[in-house]
Amino acid sequence: MNVVLILYLSLIQIVLLPASQELHEVFPIEDFESGEIGGLPIGWFNQKGNLATKDFSADLRTTYNYQILEERNNKFLRFEGTYGKHMSFPLINKDEVDIYNTPILSWKWRVHQAPKNGNEDDDNRNDVAASIYVAFDMGRVALFKKVPKTIRYTWSSTLPEGTELSKFYGNQKIVVMGQGENTNGNWKSFSRNIVEDYKRLFGDNPPAKPIAILILSDANNTDSPAKADYDDIMLHSKHSN
Questions:
Q1: Beta bridge pairs of residue 150
Q2: Sign of torsion, CA 196 197 198 200?
Q3: pTM of the model as a whole
């Protein structure tokens, strides 16, 4: 068989690859493996700066109630406490991010204890064991104030899986991914097409690059303890099998 024929047949094989063998593009956001045990993850920020550049003191861990732990050679992030704060991972400065190429956001949660009677639809009980936000370009509150448009995926204490809510004058959309007191000690994997969710929830097309991914666990409104783990946050070109 001559070289030209071999090249031709190789080209035909590439063209005829079934969809299941197409390139699966992945942008890893965080698996917590590079972080210091007992500390906060590298590359995550609050409003004042990079959290991982601060001293990993007892005061800081108490302020955030998050820390990286390790189990069976796997690192993950745990929230345990009552009062939580947002942590954000910027995407706006990542040249390789385009959610039209990688529209599937996936992650893992393991919920040990959900806030008692937490309810995302009640401002006085708006606590969750775990939530992940995708923050997009600015929307408006009333006529002047701008806030990010966000999709918030939550593990709810009381609201049924599949519940969808709209908050902050329509700028925050909440999608309940699971419900209950815990996940019985098991990790649960989740994935969402954030492009399709944005189109459906906001009624237009999202920017190709979100501002950031945010994490929040919180139980201060119900004044009850919460405990949950996060791991393997990433963007995909398609749902994993």
A1: 135, 172
A2: positive
A3: 0.86
